[in-house]
Amino acid sequence: MFGGLVDALASLGGYADPLGWLVLGLFLAGAALEYRDREYARAVQVGGWLVFALFWLVLIYPWFAIDQSVIRGVGAVVAAPLSVLVAKTLYEGRDSLFTLSRAVALMGVVYAPFVTLEPLRDRLILIVTDHTAWAMGLVGYDPAVVTRLSEAGVDRELTIEKPPLENTFVFLQEAPEGITYTIVLACTGIGSMAVIIGLVAAVRAPWQRKLRALAVAVPIIYVLNIVRNVFIGVSFGRQYLQVLPDATMMLFGLENELQVSYIWADRILAQSVSVVAMILVLWLVLREVPEVIEPVEDVLYLLTGNEYDLASALDVDIDRPAAGPAD
After folding, report:
1. Which residue in 42, 121, 228, 267 is the catalytic one?
2. Residue 28 shares a structural domain with residue 120
3. Same domain, 32 and 145
4. Residue 128 within any structural domain of the chain
5. Are residues 158 and 72 in the same domain?
6. Residue of 42, 102, 187, 267 marked active site
7. Same domain, yes or no, for 202 and 263?
8. Catalytic status, residue 228
């Protein structure tokens, strides 16, 4: 019985992509309808949030069991019921949630081209790989960057994207068969950039201030992401984080002890620090575009049931007009 439930949860992961596209379409349609009829827009956005809840629901098992990411898995567990709560609260008349809905739509607009357009995705991956290799060299590490392991003198196959990209680092010191760390789209920071761009673009504020905020936030995210890649690659490749190997292997269901350093470097430490880093980046954005406080306040209200005045707490001035389409 339990095995059947696990198989059912695993099979749901295949619906994530079509649900994601449906969510994006609904949110974009709702944002467009705001300019003509807010009540029609409300109905569409409520539907978008309900489908968004399903999107997060089907990702819970893959993120916990396949990606072995506690941070992302817990995030999906929280996001699924939170999306239902957003739908309910928006339906009941909290119009400020239109801004949060537009933000999600704009996040998708930024992120989707990198998912769908292979040349764009490959170019970003290669740029990040080059910068990660350069940064590794600065701290004294020079692993081979290859498309095939044979290029590094290793006699085993490497599963790579087609066409092959020169985006895999090979560390030979700790294992004769080589330890590989591959830069993929998730390693580029584009997801975090899309979140910040979507939030900033969705609020009502002068575009000059929006551009100044993004000119600060996006480069910081990119640089911190390169630091993250270096930390994960070196820690995993040189096996620097073999912390509690037996317990870690049992908890995460690992079969290869070499993976222990990767779990600690990426799934535990890097992802935890990334949450803190995003909060700090958001704080920098708020100094330039304090209007972003409003969707943040909405999220806090939904999580706690209490209203917050972050503008007063952070000592920033903000006009609070009636919610409407972004300028």
Report:
1. 228
2. no
3. no
4. yes
5. no
6. 187
7. yes
8. yes
305 shares a domain with 259: yes
Q: Which domain holds residue 84?
A: 1-93
pLDDT per residue, tens digit, the chain (327 aa), is 445 555 665 667 678 889 999 999 999 999 999 888 889 999 999 999 999 999 999 999 888 888 888 888 999 999 999 999 999 999 999 999 999 999 999 999 999 999 999 999 999 999 999 999 999 999 999 998 887 665 555 656 655 545 578 899 999 877 777 888 999 999 999 999 999 999 999 999 999 999 999 999 999 999 999 999 999 999 999 999 999 999 999 988 888 899 999 999 999 999 999 999 999 999 999 989 999 998 888 888 888 888 877 777 666 666 655 444 444
**Closest of 57, 71, 130 to residue 278, by C-alpha:** 71
Does residue 42 have an active-site annotation?
A: no
Residue 18 falls within a domain, yes or no?
yes
| Residue corresponding to tokens 């909290």 | 94
Assess whether 131 and 212 both reside in one domain.
Answer: yes
Residues 200 and 315 in one domain: yes
Of 39, 64, 93, the position where a domain reaches its end is: 93
Indicate whether 194 belongs to any domain.
Answer: yes
Per the structure, the count of domains in the chain is: 2
Check: pTM over 0.85? Answer yes or no: yes
105: in domain:
no
